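Fig. S4 source data, part A: sequence.
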Amino acid sequence: MNERLLRHASQLLAGSLCLGLAAANLVRVPTALAFIPAALLGAASLVSREQRRLVLLVCTLAVAGWWWGSERLDALDRSPLAARVDTAARARLTVTGPARRGKYDVRAPAVVTRFAGRRLREPVQLKLPLGRAPPQGAILDALVRVTAPRGPKNGFDERTWLRRHGMHVVLLVDRWRIVARRGGLGGVADALRRQLQSSVALGLTGSRAAVLEGVVLGEDSGLSDEVRRRFRASGLYHLLAVSGQNVALVAGSALLLAWLLGVPRVFGQLGALAAICGYVLAVGAQPSVIRAGVAGVLGSLAWLTARAADRWHLLLLGGIVLLAWNPYTLLDAGFQFSFAAVLAIFLLVPRFVGFLEGYPLGRSLRLVVAISAACGLATAPIAWLQFHSVQLLTVPANALAAPVVAPLLGLALGAAAIAPFSSSAAAALAWLNGWCAAYLVAVAQLVGGLPIAQIRSTRALLLLLAGVLLAAAYACHPRWRQS
């Protein structure tokens, strides 16, 4: 047992830090109370035997993570503008994300750098009238009024959702004008996103363009409410959120290009590193892409330094990065779906593939069915708790959609890569890719439109669980199996 603990020391240390960061969401610890036990445990680990040292280091990192998580939550909860609710003033704002159009207004995330002549830095939500929307990265001079976010309404609590992203007020924008664009790393991210957005669906309109932008950039605002509901009901909505598959394809494309050009593998890995970092910057800080980006970067670095990369360690390090920046991310649906799906792939997919080997299914189809079933099973409780719905047809829907997902991603990235050199070639690839997008929409419409596609009532869920338990009991009981 001791040898096994030592063999998985890096996983235990990373896991304890992750657990400490997450614990801050339950109870916040003051700095003084956390510093003393962490210092004592750290000092004791220096003079202890190997196994005891590991246990003490695990406890030290858990306490340190708990302290850091508490500090970050306190920082996220501070809001100078909360005391200025119902006041109006001129403000300087930097738009930090894409604008989303609703029925009655346009909303966009931003950072206030000056309010009523006072310098500050606070993330906010902008609410603008329907019409022209400021682009991501624009620096605005605007006349705004500070308002409090709405509370729970129609199943959505705007106040809680914004607070978990460090936002405590909504600014109603009356008049605004662009005075500059942000520079630095943010400016690079804005330029990369504009390049991807303008090239992946070049020449396309409607749902085809919206699906391509959703799959590549995780942006579904261009889809109609009906199509978005069908994607949710069919269990295909995860395709509209950037995932590890996207990051893996970006890295693989860079390595393939290096191989085709005859470039040494080390330069290919460096190219993959740059491609991953660029893609993560363009897409933005979505939990799934940050997790996959951390894993991809560390995997490339492990190859460059001739070190073995442990998948569990990479997963935990992704969690540490996300929780260290914002411990509230633990409560985010995207974080929960992403990590639950990866855990299901690690733990359940090999068993499901083994179970399906006796059935007349091809190898690739067995893998698709196993991944869809495992991820659907792992994420079903989260879907119920977060959205009060469970998708029942996610396995056949994903099996139908699987043939076009990889080609769609590949064609979209190819169009983005060649657009700076030939817009006509990029448009041709986008036109071809539009048929893949149309097929995805057709699958979502077909499966999501069926009456049994999803469960949204507690009674139906209880009946389903009762049926599953009875079937499992029948299958597992030895006497019933023999009969």
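Fig. S4 source data, part B ends here. The chain has a mean pLDDT of 82.
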